[in-house]
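Throughout our pipeline, every protein is held as a single compact record rather than as scattered files. Nothing more is needed to write down the fold, since each code stands for a local backbone conformation. The record that follows is passed on verbatim for readers who wish to inspect the format.
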Amino acid sequence: MHPVLRIILGIVVLIAGFYALYSSATFIWMMVKLHPVMKNGGYTTSYVLQSGGMLLGGLALACYFFYRAYKLLKPPKKEEPIEFLGEEL
């Protein structure tokens, strides 16, 4: 892959990772702020499982995006020349 394309794609994936992390944090904030705990008698088991699953899914997606961006933006390794009987191939 062309180096410039790798950098552009890495930055786009990094932005997607930050957006997924922001969405997960916003979901936690809205979950706590909007859910009427007192009116419903507390958090139900299904509500906790659903919101926990969505939260873990968002965090897993953010981690995956950060990993892919790291792999795209890290500089490629320099290949060492192969030596065979003192000669470089």
Summary: The chain has one domain: 3-72. Residues 3-72 form one domain.
